[in-house]
Specification:
Length: about 400
């Protein structure tokens, strides 16, 4: 075995010994030599197993296969443990790297905040020496060429005042805007006051209308109650009259029966049937059969009393009907009067509103005309008079006519 290893470790026959490679030593490094020795050892052990009849087996070597399976499982387990340990190490390293990154970010942000605070506190633009050269508002802060008509920096040749120059236009426009705003506010206040008055008048008119409606309703209810009372009184009177007539008819029937019996008795005892002279009543012969003078007089008195009662009842009915007609006419006249009063009040209110509107329109037109007259910027002859040279007559300047 040693000879074979030596033969294998000897250099190839084709190589020569040189200064660069003397004896070809170091051709194989230690790792290759170890691998070769391991392979030789495994071959020797295999030959022992094959050529030794005590160890050699016929067929499949199950024990060796189990050992190989166990070795593979061990290798897989070791590999899995190694990968798990590597994963844990990677996770731990990642967390540590994230913590370091966060810490570095905090340090960087704090440093930037400190730098920015220092800049904002001690390195502002307006604190620099050259700020007056880079200031964008330098012209605005600078003193203007003139501050007014009486600026002492302007000499005699400054020509600060000119005829026709409107120096107060800003103030005048501001005053005009204030007057316009005040006028608008006054108009709005007048409109609000007008609206309030109209609402008040409408409220008064509605209250008056409600009161009139209530009075009409009360009058109608009173008329209905009076009509119901009159109807009830008439029904009671008719009921009493019917009862009285029924009783009177019953009494008349009884009296008629009694009179019939008495008439029969009188006929039986009368002078006509017995051929006797009749007694004269009131200078004439009586046509009543079997009646005496006092009985006939009582009949005449009852008939006259009944006629008088009928006449009085008809008079009362006519008076009641006349009173009902007068009451209805009074209610109708009252309703017409209330309606006419409402119409007159409404017409007066409309006339008042129309007059107020006309006054407001006239006042608005007058104000507009006054504003146009005051704010008219027309250039007249008076503006050009200072610029027109005077005319001379015999060396004397003519007097100009005053212009309005």
């Amino acid at each position: 075995m040693r000879a074979a290893a030596a033969a294998r470790s000897s250099p190839p026959s084709g190589l020569k010994t040189t200064v660069v490679n003397p004896g070809f030593e170091g051709y194989h490094d230690a790792r290759e030599l170890h691998a070769i020795d391991q392979k030789i050892f495994l071959d020797t052990e295999r030959q022992k197993r094959i050529f030794d009849p005590k160890v050699r087996t016929i067929g499949i070597d199950k024990q060796r296969l189990d050992e190989q399976v166990y070795e593979r499982q061990q290798l897989k387990r070791l590999e899995q443990d190694r990968e798990d340990w590597i994963d844990k190490q990677q996770v731990q390293q990642d967390k540590h790297a994230q913590a370091l990154q966060a810490e570095s970010e905090l340090i960087r942000m704090q440093r930037e905040r400190d730098v920015q605070w220092y800049r904002d506190t001690y390195q502002r633009k307006h604190a620099g020496r050259e700020w007056h050269l880079n200031d964008p508002n330098a012209k605005r802060k600078d003193l203007p060429a003139r501050v007014g008509d009486y600026d002492p920096r302007c000499g005699p040749s400054g020509l600060q005042k000119f005829d026709g120059e409107d120096l107060d236009i800003q103030q005048r426009m501001r005053i005009q805007h204030d007057e316009i705003r005040q006028g608008l506010d006054r108009q709005l206040e007048e409109q609000r006051l007008k609206k309030w008055r109209e609402d008040q008048l409408d409220g008064v008119w509605e209250e008056r209308a409600e009161e009139i409606k209530r009075k009409i309703f009360e009058a109608e209810q009173l008329a209905k109650m009076q009509r119901r009372q009159a109807t009830k009184t008439t029904a009671d009177f008719n009921r009493a009259l019917a009862d009285f007539k029924k009783k009177e008819a019953e009494a008349a029937r009884r009296h008629g029966e009694a009179q019939s019996l008495e008439d029969i008795q009188n006929q039986l005892n009368s002078g006509l049937l017995n051929e006797r002279d009749e007694v004269m009543l009131n200078g004439r012969r009586s046509n009543a059969k079997g009646l005496h003078g006092d009985q006939l007089q009582e009949i005449y008195n009852q008939q006259a009393q009944q006629q008088e009662e009928l006449r009085q009842r008809r008079i009362r009915e006519a008076e009641e009907e006349k009173l009902a007609c007068a009451r209805d006419a009074q209610h109708h006249a009252m309703s017409l009067m209330l309606e006419k009063q409402l119409f007159n009040e409404k017409r007066a209110l409309r006339q008042q509103l129309d007059s107020d509107n006309a006054k407001q329109r006239r006042l608005a037109l007058e104000q507009a005309a006054e504003r146009r007259r005051l704010y008219a910027q027309e250039v007249g002859e008076q503006f050009f008079e200072p610029f027109v040279p005077p005319r001379y007559h015999d060396g004397v300047p003519e007097k100009r006519k005053p212009t309005r």
